[in-house]
Write a structure and sequence with these properties.
The chain has helices spanning 9-22, 37-43, 154-161, 182-201; strands spanning 2-5, 26-29, 46-59, 66-79, 85-91, 93-95, 98-102, 113-120, 126-128, 135-140, 147-149, 180-181. With 202 residues, it is α+β, with helices and mostly antiparallel strands.
Length: 202
């Protein structure tokens, strides 16, 4: 598989137009913005905790870019007026013999659970903030059933844990970050969303 450095959607569209004729698989490197949890929350129209139901790849209307539509069952809406289901669109996927992978736009598998920070895309689709930066996968321990959120860096952990009354003040967090209880993470996001809403209403 060939790899092509790319800084944005415009590059993808040009590259795929050529590759479609060649029937060649490709991978594109992208630049993903580094955003804190608070910054992503502020930039998001919706924040949901959900479970993947299906993922379907297709060409866009101009046949210049392969997209994948992911149907998400909403288990908990943390910000915005999301209903029981939301469709998230990611760049990349497979149509026929052509497969395109975009760095930073990780794929979704049915049954996976994640907390997603979402915002409108260039069209009417809904995208994950920062491709995969706004995606936090949820893992379930097979023995205990405990659910934890993955993909949090040390700064994310400090932000969420500092919201707990029992841990107000100095909070010791490993420099590499780590997993966090799902309920604690959801509670932290709700608290930040309510806090932001209160400030916006003043």
């Amino acid at each position: 598989m060939k790899r092509y450095p790319c800084l944005g959607i415009a590059c993808l569209m040009v590259g795929l137009a050529v590759l479609a004729a060649l029937g060649t698989d490709a991978a594109f490197a992208t630049t993903v913005p580094q955003m804190t949890v608070r910054e992503m929350l502020a930039a998001s129209s919706f924040v949901v905790y959900g479970r993947v139901e299906s993922a379907t790849s297709r060409w866009n209307e101009d046949r210049t870019l392969i997209m994948t539509d992911v149907r998400i069952q909403v288990l908990d809406a943390l910000k915005g007026g999301a209903g029981t289901e939301v469709v998230v669109t990611q760049p990349g996927g497979r149509v026929g013999k052509l497969r395109v992978d975009v760095d930073g736009a990780s794929g979704f598998l049915p049954g996976e659970e994640a907390v997603l920070f979402l915002a409108p895309g260039p069209g009417n689709e809904t995208n994950v903030i920062g491709l995969s930066r706004g995606r936090f996968d949820v893992a379930t321990d097979a023995q205990s059933g405990r659910k934890t959120v993955r993909g949090l860096d040390a700064a994310d952990l400090r932000t969420v844990r500092a919201l707990r009354p029992a841990t107000a003040g100095a909070v010791t967090v490993p420099e590499t970050g780590g997993p966090l209880d799902l309920d604690e993470f959801l509670g932290g996001i709700r608290h930040m969303a309510a806090e932001a809403g209160a400030k916006g209403g003043k």
